[in-house]
Write a structure and sequence with these properties.
This protein is of the alpha/beta class. The chain is 46% helix and 20% strand. Strands 1, 2, 3, 4, 5 and 7 form a six-stranded mixed beta sheet that branches. The protein has a two-stranded parallel ribbon with strand order 6-8. A hairpin with a 4-residue loop joins strand 3 and strand 4 (51-60).
């Protein structure tokens, strides 16, 4: 007899209990909001539907993307319904402790800055979304020093990345960094995109935590 299918309602409800400051945005997705960031867990059902993997993730409403790409991801242990019963609370606590940006309590910009910069030290990182998000959240604060520091950090982090792999479509690294600065400086367009995503994904359902900067 094979393993039972994942009970999506049960695992979603259980994970919400493990971190009560999160709320269900949709099935398998529980989050809260800090400024323009949606932070929480996505419970990814895998393969034939008999196992799932919890995923800590951050999504930035203020980015230029019309969708909500995940960043700062941390994968938890895969589980079936039996191992869920035995280990899911322990796995949840491990992810809460590892989270790049805290899932509970108030958050400062320093917390966010440290979270992104801690991620940048991850040897397995491989996308530019996190770097873009760091610039966008710094821009969202309207603090010129934060914004310039983020741009400088991203420039120094990525200038040695192979252009043929990461920046061909942007016309090279220098064009990419200049375009990022231009996009992140246009608050009118980004605010409009923010409002559209806020409505599209029903972000008003999520609790908002204090964010200080």
């Amino acid at each position: 007899m094979g393993r039972p299918k994942i009970n999506k309602t049960k695992i979603t409800n259980d994970w919400q209990k493990y971190c009560p400051e999160l709320r269900k945005l949709r099935m398998l997705d529980i989050d809260n909001r800090v400024g323009p960031l949606v932070i929480g867990f996505y419970l990814q059902v895998i393969g034939d539907g008999t196992i799932y993997m919890p995923l800590y993730k951050v999504e930035n409403l203020y980015s230029h993307y019309s969708v909500l790409p995940s960043s700062l991801e941390i994968e938890g242990r895969t589980m079936d319904m039996q191992t869920h019963e035995a280990y899911s609370e322990q796995v949840a606590q491990q992810l809460i402790e590892k989270a790049y940006i805290p899932l509970q309590g108030e958050v400062t910009f320093e917390n966010i800055k440290n979270g992104y910069e801690r991620y940048f030290k991850n040897p397995n990182k491989g996308t530019i979304v996190e770097y873009e998000d760091y610039v966008y959240i710094s821009s969202w604060t309207r603090n010129k020093l934060f914004f310039e520091t983020a741009l400088n950090t991203v420039y120094n982090e990525l200038k040695a990345w192979p252009e043929e792999r990461y920046f061909v479509q942007a016309g090279g690294f220098q064009n990419w960094i200049l375009e990022l600065e231009k996009k992140a400086s246009n608050h009118e367009i980004l605010e409009d995109n923010y409002r559209k995503k806020f409505a599209k994904y029903k972000i008003e359902k999520l609790p908002e935590r204090p964010f200080y900067f």
